[in-house]
Amino acid sequence: MTDLPYRPNVGAVLFNRDGLVFVARRADMPYAEGPAGGWQLPQGGIDANEDPRAAVLRELEEEIGTRNVAIIGEHPDWLTYDLPPDLLGIAWRGKYRGQRQRWFAMRFLGEDAEIRLDLDPHPEFDAWRWVPLPALPALAVGFKRPIYEVLTEAFAPFAGR
């Protein structure tokens, strides 16, 4: 399975006015490592020929119901993770070994009431909250934790008000 490609993906580290970060709990994550493991940052696939900046805005609107954001930073590298062995051949219909991600730091410009997880008939998330940036790695499922550690360090300058 290691000869499978990585799925092109974007992710958003969305900061509010207080410097806290948006996390959401996956509604379909039975393999999460305890109650903390189902929380993640918004992320999603990049469509064919889609610019990553356009993709991250689209994904935010699809997943949390708003585009009322500003891009304030971008990680300079594409970050990758591999799926754990029990998910290889299952996730994404077995087409990918993991994801290759472009991450953006973003500032939420709206009010919390604008965040809507219920707009999609099959929502990806069932709950959300704001957390301090350093809390991200502990909330992530194990195979995503190293990326969250990188993001926590790289985007620390954006956590201030």
UniProtKB/TrEMBL annotation:
InterPro entries: NUDIX_hydrolase-like_dom_sf, NUDIX_hydrolase_CS, NUDIX_hydrolase_dom, RppH. It comes from the Bacteria. It holds the Pfam family NUDIX. The keyword Hydrolase applies. A motif (Nudix box) lies at residues 44-65. Its cofactor is Mg(2+); a divalent metal cation. SUPFAM superfamilies: Nudix. Residues 5-153 form the Nudix hydrolase domain. Its EC number is 3.6.1.-. The keyword Iron does not apply. GO terms for molecular function: bis(5'-adenosyl)-pentaphosphatase activity; guanosine-3',5'-bis(diphosphate) 3'-diphosphatase activity. Keywords: Hydrolase. GO terms for biological process: nucleoside phosphate metabolic process; ribose phosphate metabolic process. Belongs to the Nudix hydrolase family. RppH subfamily. Accelerates the degradation of transcripts by removing pyrophosphate from the 5'-end of triphosphorylated RNA, leading to a more labile monophosphorylated state that can stimulate subsequent ribonuclease cleavage. This is RNA pyrophosphohydrolase.
